[in-house]
Specification:
The complex is a heterodimer. By secondary structure, chain A is of the alpha/beta class. Chain A is built from 8 helices and 10 strands. Chain A has a domain of 159 residues: 3-Layer(aba) Sandwich (Rossmann fold). Chain A has a 6-stranded mixed β-sheet with strand order 6-7-8-3-9-10, sandwiched between helices. In chain A, α4 packs parallel to α6, α5 packs across α6 and α6 runs parallel beside α7. Chain B folds into 2 domains: 184 residues, no CATH class; 208 residues, no CATH class. In chain B, β9 and β10 form a beta hairpin. In chain B, the strands form 2 sheets. In chain B, strands 1, 3, 4, 5, 6, 7, 8, 9, 10, 11, 14 and 15 form a 12-stranded mixed β-sheet that branches. Chain B has a 3-stranded mixed β-sheet with strand order 2-13-12, with no helix packed on it. Chains A and B meet through α3, α4 and α5 of A and α1, α10, α11 and α13 of B.
Chain lengths: 242, 424
Amino acid sequence: MIFFSRHITQTKTLAVVAELDNVTRIYKMGDTEVRALDGISVKFSSSEYWSIMGASGSGKSTLLNILGCIDTPTSGAYRVDGKDTKSLDDDSLSDLRGTSIGFIFQSFNLIQQLNVIENIMVPTFYRDQESAKSIERAEELAQRVGLEDRLLHRPNELSGGQQQRVAIARALMNDPQIILADEATGNLDSQTTEEILELFSELHAEGKTILLVTHELNVGKRAQNILTLNDGSICSVVEGNG
Amino acid sequence: MLYSPFSRSVRLGIKSLFLHKLRSLLTTFGVLFGVSSVISMLAIGEGASEEAQEQIRQLGSQNVILRSLKPEDDPMSTQTTRSTSYGLTWPDFERVAETFPGVEGVVPIRNFVQEVRFEDRVLTNATVMGTTADYQQVTGRILHRGRFVGPFDDVARNNVCVLGYEVARYFFAGEEAIGQAIKIGPEYFEVIGVILPRVPIGAKEMSASISITGEVFIPIQTGISWFGPMNVELNSGSRTIEIVDLHEVIASVKTADVVAAVAAASRTMLEREHPLHDYEVIVPLELLARAEETKRIFNIVLGCIASISLLVGGIGIMNVMLATVNERTREIGIRRSLGAKRHHIMMQFLVETVVLSVGGGILGIGLGVLVPYLVEHYADMRTIVTLQAPFLAFGISVSIGLVFGLYPAWQAANLDPVEALRHE
């Protein structure tokens, strides 16, 4: 394992927002057991920018599901804001997803029958408190990602880059601490990829914890820290990568 | 309020349904036809029973009607002249009038088969009824003009008659009937009154044809004096002579609760006096009770048929919703990853099914009100759309949406978010 610990003192002072503690995830496929994750321990602190890399089948997706609280570890603990996800019921996990995590997907995953502003507002639909302010906030976010003149368009009327911007605005809607991006630039051309990565850098600068899952090295390199998986285990952790 | 969670769910639900316009429309039809058949069946059933009850009520709910019944003809008879003597007798009438407790008024009725004519207009099948002054009071019939047969007419055997409204209109067509003389059989009778028909004059225009039926009332003793004790009916090649004292005896009682007692007494008395059973006892109150029972059974049967059609509609909805859930698995995964709880997903799909079924329900109410209207106009049947029927149908369609939407919604809510997101 290679450690670059230039900023180690800095990271130590930041609050840990998500922490994997010896996480193992085993799938049962018929009689055989598949160890998708095997003893992963890592801490993600506030305002850190991580990329999670690895070949396909290395356990990236499983890790992402667990980080996104749509899956729970078979053994070990995953804590978000100090809460162990294993002890939470389905509703509490949903709450956690809604409040602490913003998802960005490779295939954008916008809801086709809703227009841009409605898509951005979806996360507020499942919050208890909700007001006319939600619309204002959604409009601000649309403006921020440069879609203020596309508010009433349907996703299928937008380009890939525009759709991903909507998805980013949607991920920011509830102001979560963690932004979880799953191959967010995988379906975009290099020009658009650059724009999206620029947005991530901005968000990072604003203090969000960004976890970017990717298999493209040039994308992964943009992150401060790089975690590489191989066969369900951590292969390397590079911290403080410029 | 525009962004209240509920109104938003409904709005977004409608939006989702509009993604598949034809499919949603066809699904709605299932409920539409179910609901409209419930409403129209109820309306037709209600109308039919109301009509039956109306007719029974006109017989008088506080009356007991004894009627002469012609015994079965001997089919092997080759006689050209058949003579039968049967039916109620004057002693029967007197027994009812004098010995039955609770009886308020009794009227005898004797029918005469006679031709009725005025100048060149002839009524061949008018019912000429001989009766007494009490008839009007016992049956509650209403006079249009003039007076009814009085007690003195009977005693004096006056040649007077009271015409049914239709008969008067046929003969005199708007001119004054009172004081005119019409011919019944060979004799002239002075018209002293016009009586309104039992059934209110409806929208259906009475055609002034020869086949018009109508009533002509004369004093019973006058009739017997002139036309004798026999009714002679001429058919092709044969003659039927009937000797009947009284064709009908109508007894009215003081209160409805003695109707049953009077009816039972009448039956016992007639059983003893008429071993040939040449009579029948009609108790409108009993008929009314029977009509109520029939209506109840009718409603149950109609209800079952209608529920089957609603069930079919409901299954249609469920089928479509299951397909929808499958199609939108990915959307469910997205929503779950954005913080939607199971009950949010459940609610979303339930709202969509209820919107479908309520949409069908509302259209169904429209059609269900239109169909009885058309039936009334074109099939000439009475229909009654009760106020409850549309509310009932609406309630049913909401319940259909809830019941048949529950399983697909439950299925959607319990999808694994990881699997759902991976779904293509």
